[in-house]
Amino acid sequence: MVVGIMELSLALYDNASLKDKRSVVRRVIHRTRNTFNVSAAEVEDLDFADRATLGFVAVGSQHSYVQGMLDKVENFIVRLALCDVLDAHKSVEHY
Whole-prediction pTM value? Predict the structure, then answer.
């Protein structure tokens, strides 16, 4: 079993409140879950309106498949253009 974890740091501009931030984060997570077979959640920076950190997890049987899935998720979020991706830390582990 291969588990891939990605921690994605996002910059959110033009958000006046946490309510605006949650709206953007919800859209990103919802669209990503519907497009890819990954789990996703907001994991850090919950009280800041201008940034968010999302966690994504993918599971598979091959290292290349899981790594490719995480790369596709990152590219998909960049193409959504709802926010800017500041950093994407990826880790793929074998169990």
Answer: 0.88
Provide CB contacts within 8 A for 1, sequence distance 6+.
Answer: 59, 61, 94, 95
CA distances 42 to 7, 62, 63, 64, 94, Å, are 10, 26, 25, 25, 24
Mean pLDDT across the chain: 91
- Asked if 91 contacts 5 with a C-beta cutoff of 8 angstroms, the reply is yes
- Residue 88: strand pairing partners: 8
Q: What is the DSSP letter of 7?
A: E
Q: What is the share, in percent, of the chain residues with pLDDT greater than 70? A: 100
Report the distance separating Cα 40 and Cα 46, nearest Å.
Answer: 15
pLDDT digits (tens, 9 = 90+) for 35-75: 998 999 999 887 888 889 999 999 999 999 999 999 999 99
DSSP letters, 41-75, are EEEE-TT-SSEEEEEEEEEES-HHHHHHHHHHHHH
